[in-house]
Write a structure and sequence with these properties.
This protein has 4 helices and 12 strands. By secondary structure, the protein is an alpha+beta fold. The protein has a 5-stranded antiparallel beta sheet with strand order 10-1-2-11-12, covered by helices on one side. A 5-stranded antiparallel beta sheet has the order 5-6-7-8-9, covered by helices on one side. Helix 3 runs antiparallel to helix 4. It starts with 9 loop residues before the first strand and ends in a 5-residue tail after the last strand. It is found in: Cytoplasm; Nucleus. InterPro entries: Ntn_hydrolases_N, Proteasome_beta_3, Proteasome_bsu_CS, Proteasome_sua/b, Proteasome_suB-type. It comes from Helianthus annuus (Common sunflower). Keywords: Cytoplasm, Hydrolase, Nucleus, Proteasome.
Length: 204
């Protein structure tokens, strides 16, 4: 088993019309044994920027703490929040710094940039960025997430339709993956508000 699959995870981010959604499962496991059913994989950096970390749970928590520290330094120095594109470059540089002993994480970054244009991207454990205009996925359930998102996604969805689409894609995908599951955690972000919702899934 790959070290990336040790704790299991499912992460997806999707864009709508001037909004985006980011969602993850809630299971923390040690291979096939479930340890926790309310594990946090999505972190708020600021009101319009969210970070999802799939992969090894302990590395995800460490990387999150270091990124929050770096973002706070940026806020102090620049007196403004970081743009999503800038934050993606920061994450990429931090991961590449550690390329000989990497964090076993696949980050998913989602945010609203200038003119409230949604930005999403993912990268591998050494910071090679992959940008997308529709959706990005990561984690052990990524194969079934690709299929579900590919068939359900359509451009310029409003925030309610986006929530419905990302939720259906996540729930149907984690049902097909024994290493992730136990419900879902969804954030819908518009220029004016952030909505957080918990999904109930199969509890087995």
């Amino acid at each position: 088993m790959s070290i990336f699959e040790y704790n299991g995870s499912a992460l997806v981010a999707m864009v709508g019309k001037n909004c985006f959604a980011i969602a993850s499962d809630r299971r923390l496991g040690v291979q096939l044994q479930t340890i926790a059913t309310d594990f946090q994989r999505i972190f708020k950096i600021h009101d319009k920027l969210f970070l999802g970390l799939s992969g090894l749970g302990s590395d995800a928590q460490t990387l999150h703490q270091r990124l929050v520290f770096r973002h706070k330094l940026y806020q102090l120095r620049e007196e403004r929040d970081m743009k999503p594109e800038t934050f993606a470059s920061l994450v990429s540089a931090m991961l590449y710094e550690k390329r000989f002993g990497p964090y076993f994480c696949q980050p998913v970054i989602a945010g609203l940039g200038e003119d409230d244009k949604p930005f999403i991207c993912t990268m591998d454990s050494i910071g090679a960025k992959e940008l997308a205009k529709d959706f990005v996925v990561a984690g052990t359930a990524s194969e079934s997430l690709y299929g579900a998102c590919e068939s359900m996604f359509k451009p310029d969805m409003d925030h309610e339709e986006l929530f419905e689409t990302i939720s259906q894609a996540l729930v149907s995908s984690i049902d097909r993956d024994c290493l992730s599951g136990w419900g879902g955690h969804v954030y819908i972000v518009t220029p004016t508000e952030v909505t957080e919702r918990i999904l109930k899934g199969r509890m087995d």
